[in-house]
Model the fold of this input.
Amino acid sequence: MEHTPAPFTTSQKVYLWITAIACTCLVVADIVGVKLFTFPMGFGIPVPWEKEPIRAVTHTCGMLTFPITFIATDVLNEFYGKKAARRVVYICFAMAFLAFIVLNVAQAMPRLDAPYNVREEAFNHIFGGAKIMYVASLAAYVVGSVADIVMFAWIKWATKGKMVWLRATGSTVVSQFIDSFIVSYIAFSLGRRLFPSDGPPPADFAEVLRIAGTGYLLKFTIAIASTPLIYLIKGSMTRWLGMKPLPPERAIG
Done:
């Protein structure tokens, strides 16, 4: 008797696609995060932790894709619930950690001495110079995402499924603060203490808070700006795919 595989439902297909997008965005963010970008704003924003107003947006290129992981988490939480959202977070972490292992193995592989091959120092400079930042980013992602999932579900339950903007923005604003602090503390303080080198010394706690605050300002702005996108995705999934959000009474179950 010929066995035919069971077809995927629309809900399963969407879950698979969101998982793939979230994993890709996290891995890409961790790899391209070694490069910093800056955009002059043309005006200054005074902040209490800086002597001079912030006049440019400066951060890692990981911010090109990293915010998408939190949007994906919110969408998963809205339609599939906490457990399904957490499962994707753990899958993303595992895939990013797998990429980290492969990058380290690639560094250790003996280089072919040929003029058309990439130079050893160039390869190591890009993929070996930010290992602590990579690990810090993964740790911050897991803790921040789990916090985001819990906050989102609780707000949805408390508001009886109303005010999507509140749970989408509120959960991300809180979780991104946690994310910013953890990645700054591990990358600029704890990591340098555990693995001392000839580079910059570990930052003190006040400096860690300053670095985290500056990064959080950008993430806060992105969280606010991405709220309409949450509405658009939710509306599209409901109208065009026939999917229904998880009832609020099951949000914290």
